[in-house]
Specification:
about 260 residues; alpha+beta; 12-stranded antiparallel β-barrel; 3 helices; 13 strands; about 15% helix
């Protein structure tokens, strides 16, 4: 009985002493050496500076007889918690040799959970004219059932507020053959008469792409897309005997490194 009481007291004192230290190992080893060991462990497991460049879409669309080139790319540099993101996307009309849309974003990204980042930064539209700059805030990450989500709010230098939601899903038919549904919705919360935009739903772009990864870092694809504009822009197209909605056959390549 006496022995068990002594053991219990000694064990309690030992646990109490360890609890008062930030790191228990510092009670038994040189704290400076342990701090260096923890720093080395942290630098190799979660605190490295990494980078990624992803060409999500580089494709040619038939676009109802008026072919266009479409691009969407993004890249980041940083660690697990803090990153600098660069995003760009746009469209180039090959028949008229002009850019229909071209934008660039620079964003600070902060991890708020294992699968989600909150992002804040700037966006600038080089086309169409007149150009616009925006304050941008959004979230990007992986939702339930492996849906990739990128949702953003934009406040322009003219005080106009708009939103964009992109959702993608990758269905692996084999280890290399992948079917990717994609949906993009753009909505405005105020009118922008200079750009023929009304408050409300602005455009919807839905696509289905089938790609084959010859290598994991590069994959050509074929697919179909449906694009529809609404509001004043749709009225303008109708006045020119053009359809505000169109189905396109597309071919492109996706890559990353």
């Amino acid at each position: 009985m006496m022995r068990s009481s002594i053991i219990w007291v000694l064990l309690s004192l030992s646990l109490s002493s360890a609890a008062t230290a930030q790191y228990a190992a510092d009670q038994y080893f040189d704290p400076n050496e342990m701090a260096a060991a923890r720093e080395a462990l942290w630098s190799g497991h979660g605190n490295q500076i990494n980078a990624l460049v992803l060409g999500e879409r580089f494709e040619h669309r038939s676009a109802g007889g008026n072919p266009i080139l479409v691009w969407e790319g993004q890249g980041w540099v940083g660690n697990d918690d803090h990153k600098l993101w660069i995003k760009t996307e746009g469209e180039y009309e090959t028949a008229d040799s002009r850019f229909e849309h071209a934008e660039l974003q620079a964003l600070y990204s902060r991890a708020i959970s294992p699968f989600w980042d909150i992002q804040l930064g700037l966006r600038h539209d080089f086309e169409p004219d007149p150009t616009r700059s925006y304050l941008t805030v959004g979230v990007q990450g992986l939702a339930r059932y492996w849906f990739e989500i990128d949702a953003q709010l934009f406040l322009s230098d003219q005080g106009d507020l708009s939103a964009r939601l992109e959702a993608e899903y990758e269905l692996r038919l084999t280890q290399r053959l992948i079917l990717q549904p994609r949906l993009e919705i753009i909505s405005a919360f105020s009118d922008d008469t200079d750009r023929n935009l009304d408050a409300g739903l602005s455009s919807v772009d839905a696509g289905l792409r089938l790609r084959y990864e010859f290598r994991r870092t590069i994959a050509p694809y074929l697919g179909l897309s449906w694009n529809r504009v609404y509001g004043r822009e749709a009225d303008l197209l109708r006045s020119n005997n053009e359809d505000p909605g169109e189905i396109s056959v597309l071919a492109g390549v996706r890559f990353w490194y």
